[in-house]
Amino acid sequence: MAVKAVVFDLFGTLVFDKFSSEKYPLFLSRLASFLNLKDSDFSSLWQASYQDRALGKFETLQDNLRWIGNQLGHALEPSAVDKSASAIVDLTRQALTPRAQAVEVLYQLRLMGFKTGLMSDCGPAVPLVWKETPFEDLFDTAVFSCREGLKKPDPKFYQIVLDRLAVPARECFYLGDGHSGELDGAKGMGMKTALIWSAIDIDEPERLVVKGWEGITLTSLAELVSLLAI
Ligand SMILES: [Mg+2]
Predict the structure, then answer these.
(1) Is residue 202 scored above 50 in pLDDT?
(2) Residue 56 CA to ligand 1 centre (angstroms)
């Protein structure tokens, strides 16, 4: 396998996907109470604004929160908006804790001579805290949907990573947990692909997305090293 670079998804691949966990609705309720908004109104507009958040349509988290307030006819208290934005950044910081083997595997792949890229569909909190994470030094490039105004599976989004890595798609391996059509998107570009999904990821709900996948499936990040060592 003439692979020169490995591109990783972030949530559900290198870190647990806290934003899909059962506890996330409780977090949103807390934000709604900071903002003095009805829980269900806030939560549904927060979820409904995900696409715009991930596409960088809101320059800051505060803009996103103010937009929700406007939709509900409330001018939000600036201090409550800042407090909520900080809580989102804090949760994101926690969420970016590497899962087991992530740091070791990235380090190992780089020792083996592979370039490494990250591609994440995310809101503005992720690039804000990225530099504080151990991942920062382990990637040749990290691209965030909210910074590029592009999401998976848009071919232009993959092309940005490939260009920055200076590696053609056919020499690139993509690993993800399968959300947002990311694996078909990567395959469509000509990249080699694998799904990662571990039944022991108890923080994550059952991933319906994995059903029907017929390609390579890994149950741990360490398996990637053996796969690429061949
Ligand atoms: Mg994911």
Answers:
(1) no
(2) 18
Fill in the DSSP letter of residue 15: B
Angle (CA) 202-117-220 rounded to 5° is 30
Neighbours of ion ligand 1 (CB under 5 A): 9, 11-12, 177, 179
CA of 119 to the centre of ligand 1 (A): 9
Q: Is the pLDDT of residue 1 over 60?
A: no
Residue 203 phi, psi dihedral angles, 5° rounding = -75, -15
Q: Span 123-151, mean pLDDT?
A: 97
Lowest mean pLDDT: which of 133-137, 185-189, 201-205? Answer: 201-205
Q: Between 2.60.120.260, 3.40.50.1000, 3.60.10.10, 3.40.50.740, what CATH number should domain 5-16+99-229 receive?
A: 3.40.50.1000
